[in-house]
Write a structure and sequence with these properties.
binds 2-oxoglutaric acid; four-stranded antiparallel beta sheet; Jelly Rolls; seven-stranded antiparallel beta sheet; alpha+beta
């Protein structure tokens, strides 16, 4: 097992106020400051970035040949299965407990992790992450799912921080849209017409956001000179069950992230460990 320097803290409890919990459930997302220390972030950033460089399957695809999704970010999934230090990070109790307490569930399982590295944009009007909701992709029977978006450094506005349509997690329009140019155009219009507040803010060093699976979100392009290095962990209620896939992406997700699980059965394959449950 890797050794952990003492300044590193991924397990202690982060105390949430009732107002913060209420904010998350009402607004569909929350940004929390000082969740992870600079030492913790730097320790894991080095390892995660090294693995992203090794495993990046877009390295040989020139920018001009990439589609909108490929320009949005380099995506490397379930890194915890490839590296014990990343596993240690993904299994950290601090974030998992936050996910459980924000959603109000007794425990959470891992759906999957993913590194999302947004490269500096090489052309105007490209490199944004289109509007979408994650749960479109997930064959899961509960709305108690959420993503922790964990920037591994401070993210100023020009580097493409994650932004949210507040209170959009109850909004049904556009739930059949995959992340695409169409989702960007349709949801941009629909969310504005419906009057949702679009919250676009930088992230401080150590700040982490959580958003529900049905909260619409997007990110602008990275117009800085440095890659935007972000790790994410997707949590689901530990009692989640697998549903009949509603689209081909869900068929793929079922096979990939919930292998061997039966439709209607617990979403609890060997790669969906419980990461936190209350005593
Ligand atoms: O990092 C990004 O640009 C998008 C992130 C995202 O969509 C997510 O974490 O659900």
């Amino acid at each position: 097992m890797p050794t952990t320097p003492p300044a590193i803290d991924i397990d202690s409890a982060y105390t949430l106020s009732d107002e913060q919990i209420d904010f998350f459930r009402r607004r569909g997302f929350i940004k929390l400051k000082q969740v992870l220390s600079p030492e913790t972030l730097e320790h894991y950033r080095r390892v995660i970035t090294q693995r992203v460089i090794e495993l990046n399957d877009l390295a040989n695809v020139p920018w001009e040949q990439r589609d909108t999704y490929q320009k949005a970010f380099i995506q490397v999934m379930n890194l915890w299965l490839k590296d014990d230090t990343v596993k240690e990070f993904v299994f950290g109790k601090r974030l998992a407990r936050l996910a459980a307490e924000l959603m109000g569930v007794d425990g959470v399982r891992l759906y999957h992790d993913q590194a999302l590295y947004k490269e500096p944009s090489k052309t105007a009007n490209a490199g944004h992450t289109p509007w979408h909701a994650d749960q479109y992709y997930w064959p899961i029977d509960t709305t108690n799912t959420c993503t922790a978006w964990i920037p591994l450094h401070a993210v100023p506005l020009e580097a493409g921080p994650l932004s949210f349509a507040a209170e959009s997690h109850h909004h049904e329009i556009g739930r059949d849209l995959e992340i695409s140019d169409e989702s960007e155009a349709v949801l941009q219009r629909e969310l504005a017409e419906a009057g949702f507040d679009h919250v676009v803010e930088p992230f401080d060093l150590g700040e982490v956001s959580f958003h529900y699976g049905w909260t619409y979100h997007r990110a602008g392009p990275n117009t800085s000179q440095q890659p935007r290095e972000v790790m994410t962990v997707i949590y689901m209620d530990q009692t989640a069950r697998v549903t009949e896939p509603k689209n081909t992406y869900q068929v793929n997700d079922h096979n990939t992230w919930l292998p061997g699980t039966a439709i209607g059965g617990p979403a609890a394959s060997k790669i969906n460990p419980v990461l936190y449950h209350k005593d």
